[in-house]
Amino acid sequence: MRDKKESKNKDAYTELINENNLTYDDYASIDDGYRYELVDGQLELMSPAPSVTHQMISFQMQKEIGKSCESDYIILYAPVDVILADNEVRQPDLVLIHRKRLDILSNRGVIGPPDLVVEILSPSTLKRDKIDKLNTYANFRIPEYWIIEPKAGILEQYSLHDEQYRLIDVFQENAHVTSPHIPCISFTMAQIMERIPIIWISGGLSPITLTR
């Protein structure tokens, strides 16, 4: 009986994945063990779990941002739903929301545009993060978007101007990261990357990233 129920649920999920014009309620009803984003009413399967290096960079960024911004901003990290519209749900790696805007927070996630979203690149998310999400976040008027290139330890900073993002700065090594929208931001990429240890590829001797 249990097998029949699981098979029925799987078939229902498969039908949803192939449909257009889905809503947040459709998205939230899926419980098949995979992670999705809802993009213009269609489900997009996300990549497998982020790498250990990816997770360590995310954690270090949370800590560094929190040192100077925690009193003014809520810092959330993936997986968290950013519900931009009933047919558009994204899961950035990091999200900042000013404490004066707590009304956009719910147990479901963030309902509306946060103050800052951050994506940490991986080979499988390169196009999605640098093109698809850049356009989506601009369309929904998120004031600032950062893209982190983990191998080089680079932060690309995009700011919203006339409903489009402009690349306004690139930070690396000891360049002091600042923000036109979030004045409390104060760290360097060197502070992030120097805490990332060497991770070795299983069965080989090639480092994925190096301590800086």
Short synopsis of the structure:
This protein is of the alpha+beta class and about 210 residues long. The chain has helices at about 1-15, 25-30, 50-70, 125-140, 190-195, and strands at about 35-40, 40-45, 75, 80-85, 90, 95-100, 105, 110, 115-120, 145-150, 155-160, 165-170, 175, 185-190.
Characterise this structure.
- It is built from five helices and 14 strands.
- The protein is globular.
- By secondary structure, it is an alpha+beta fold.
- The strands form four sheets. It has a six-stranded mixed beta sheet with strand order 3-6-9-10-11-12, with helices on both faces.
- It starts with a helix and ends in a 19-residue tail after the last helix.
- The chain has two domains: 2-45, no CATH class; 52-193, tt1808, chain A (Alpha-Beta Complex).
- It has helices at residues 2-17, 24-28, 52-69, 126-139, 189-193, and strands spanning 36-39, 42-45, 73-77, 82-85, 88-90, 94-98, 105-106, 109-111, 116-120, 144-149, 154-161, 164-172, 176-177, 187-188.
Give the secondary structure arrangement, pairings included.
Elements (H helix, E strand, L loop, with lengths): L1 H16 L6 H5 L7 E4 L2 E4 L6 H18 L3 E5 L4 E4 L2 E3 L3 E5 L6 E2 L2 E3 L4 E5 L5 H14 L4 E6 L4 E8 L2 E9 L3 E2 L9 E2 H5 L19
Parallel strand pairs: 4-8, 9-10
Antiparallel strand pairs: 1-2, 3-6, 4-5, 6-9, 7-8, 10-11, 11-12, 13-14
From the structure above, extract its key features.
2 domains; 212 residues; alpha+beta; 27% helix; tt1808, chain A; disordered N terminus; 6-stranded mixed beta sheet; 4-stranded mixed beta sheet
